Amino acid sequence: MHSDPVASRSAESRKTNGSSPTIDAVSLAIIEQLQEDGRRPYAAIGKAVGLSEAAVRQRVQKLLDQGVMQIVAVTDPLTVGLRRQAMVGIRVEGDLDGIAEALTAMAECEYVVMTAGSFDLMVEIVCEDDDHLLEVINKRIRALPGVRSTESFVYLKLKKQTYMWGTR
Question: What number of other Cβ atoms are within 10 A of residue 57's Cβ?
Answer without folding.
Answer: 15
